[in-house]
């Protein structure tokens, strides 16, 4: 599987996750939308052509206007995680925090602690943003 195919599969996985959890429906009901703001892929081992695999998706963190998802590409014959993707989903067109959407869907949900890898990735994106702001 080539790198472009991973991103294509992530689109399907993300839409499936949105539908399964009701997140996108809750955002749309309020007149908003969602876009992928960023992603970071770590390829651990090649996924051979015609190898059966699955993609798991889970919500790992949220803040203000963003949901953070973790996707794993897992080969079925050996259950090995072949690639891990962090993805930043940005809610558009709403003036409410992501926590309100989560509370509507899961009233008892607690925001997880931020993982070290997500924290470092967010710092990296912030650093990159600062770099480009300084050039203007």
From TrEMBL:
<dbReference type="InterPro" id="IPR051490">
    <property type="entry name" value="THEM6_lcsJ_thioesterase"/>
</dbReference>
<comment type="similarity">
    <text>Belongs to the THEM6 family.</text>
</comment>
<dbReference type="Pfam" id="PF13279">
    <property type="entry name" value="4HBT_2"/>
</dbReference>
<dbReference type="InterPro" id="IPR029069">
    <property type="entry name" value="HotDog_dom_sf"/>
</dbReference>
<protein>
    <recommendedName>
        <fullName>Protein THEM6</fullName>
    </recommendedName>
</protein>
